[in-house]
Amino acid sequence: MAVAPLYKTQELKIYNSISGNKEIFTPITEGNIGMYVCGPTVYSNVHLGNCRTFISFDLIYRYLKHLGYKVRYVRNITDAGHLENDADEGEDKVSKKARIEQLEPMEIVQRYTLDFHNILTKFNNLPPSIEPTATGHIIEQIEITKTIIDNGFAYEANGSVYFDVKKFNETNNYGKLSGRNLEDMIANTRELTAQSDKKNPQDFALWKKAEPEHIMRWPSPWSDGFPGWHLECTVMSTKYLGEQFDIHGGGMDLKFPHHECEIAQGEAACGKTPVNYWMHANMLTLDGKKMSKSTGNILSPAEIFNGESDKLNKDFAPTVARFFMLQAHYRSILDFSNDALEASEKGFYRLMDAIQSLDTLKTGKTTEGFDTEKWIRECYDAMNDDFNSPILIAKLFEAVKFINTVKENKAIVSTSDYRLIRETMHAFVFDVLGLVNVNEASSDISDKLSGAVELLINLRKEARANKDFATSDKIRDELQEIGIQLKDGREGTSFTLN
Ligand SMILES: [Zn+2]
Q1: What CATH number should be reported for the domain whose range is 285-432?
Q2: Cα–Cα distance, 243 to 241 (Å, whole number)
Q3: Per-residue pLDDT tens for 36-87?
Q4: DSSP type of residue 385
Q5: CATH code for 10-281?
Q6: From the CA of 85, how far away is ligand 1's center (Å)?
Q7: How far is the CA of 259 from the centre of ligand 1 (A)?
């Protein structure tokens, strides 16, 4: 008999940004979830703040999968059309970087997409199911622009096409996600500049005519140009998940105007609101202040891994940084600091040590001093309460405490409880939180490495005994080249890693 999926017995609540309430989650199609998360604009190395957003949604993706849902997770790559400011002015970010670095725009895109994947892999993020690009969906973006014009919610001006926010707001509600209303927005914006083609400052571009120096351009019915940034997410989410889908996520900073515009585009094109649950991950500060290049208050993921930053006293394993981030709820602001990371690191190793102790724990007839069933329920309750990872981690540490007490022979665990605790710990620590036991991995690698080097040392010894000095020197020199130094002494040959 097939086991019923976990989600059937769990009541998951999600904080929906559009209602401002935690709501019971019900997917459109039972057992299936469509989730879209706004991906990076690939014109520079990925920011630590963005990593936090993607780690938050990785936790969510992992938990939904753990519950037995079939999840289609779409996360886009913005490789065109994201202008420097929200007023549809300035250059395309990718084009600008290409001009500065004298590279093809697609070289910029490739370089920073690789960086993005590399960093997220280090953090042990699962890849999304589909990772579509804006430039791969230009035709669809032109088609939806035509539809929005035909439906009367967009207009052409001098080769560009703009979304008519005022017109849209007559029948729909522009501002419902960010809690703004159009009258206030109009009252608080400055007049349009004389050269603007927009009817109103709130209107946003669906298609922009390219200036002669603009490199990234495509033909369209209106001009040689490029799509507006908000449009790609509407096109790619609905193409792969349907006109209405379950979850749309992104960083808090994307709520307005980006996500507000996505709702408007979706409703204007399909007559349906596109998303049931809007989720926004909060930002990251560094030493209590906003991260910013201009003030120097900045830390990159690479600097965490190599420790080469004046903000840190040492390097930290990516999984420790991930653990640190998951110790805060995704909707709270998280402050990054050396001290906080060091504290997390201690906790992380305490957790890993307990998991390792579990493998050799002695079991008895009954359990004393721990209510296993209640503990498991509380772990799920934490995650079912809008993915509350800090509460979950606190629960995991209750088990750590119990495991250590059993280890010291001060408490007893029954065989069946032992199995349940071990299974639950592994599921939450590795599958849901996505942590990696670096203790285990690194000691395993060093054991194997030592074995291989010992083998070479013995081969070198044999070569020398046979007066084959060419081979013995070759072994020594080539090991030296890869950073392994052999030292001959009275006790034999030893090695050190440079
Ligand atoms: Zn987006």
Answers
A1: 1.10.730
A2: 7
A3: 999 999 999 999 999 999 999 999 999 999 999 999 999 999 998 788 776 6
A4: B
A5: 3.40.50.620
A6: 15
A7: 7
